[in-house]
Write a structure and sequence with these properties.
By secondary structure, the chain is mainly alpha-helical. It is 73% helix and 0% strand. The chain contains eight helices and no strands.
Length: 195
Amino acid sequence: MNPSSPGIPPERKLRADAVRNRDRLLEEAKKAFTLLGAEISLEDVARQAGVGPGTLYRHFPNRDALLEAVYRAEVGRLAEEERRLTAALPALDALRAWMLLFVDYIATKKIIAPALNSMVGGPSQLFESSGAQIKGAIGALVRRAIESGDIREDLEPLDLLRALVGVSNVASAPDWQASARRLVEILLLGSRPTS
């Protein structure tokens, strides 16, 4: 995790125990936002993370800072996973695994995005920087899969993302994630070379 995220002055280096506390807070906040929406109890997040409210507020002075940090952590995780999957898996398997992670990211974003939109000044800069990271990750994975011959040369990386985001936007049923996961397989099957 990046210790210079919201609520932490960039010049301050965190101790190892503080980094662990911050990471636990982010993980518990993500779970709470996903289950309960943006109006979660910050004290409950602290309790679930095994820290006191003071620790939470030292890292995240307010709800907006926590929301933004969870969002940034999810985007950072997607970018890190692209590199890890590329190193560990064949091209098509890496692309599939990353797309499945993207489905999980969409679920988190669907909960957090409305709250981010209500922040003073709006989150447009945040969304722009996160969009660039996501586009870079999917672009690298698709290029690698094209080079390996696993998918067609004319595949546009953003088309894969648009399809997954589209399923999440039109689906009102609670099982939209299962549908999106099936769509990953359909998209990859349809992206194979025709010859």
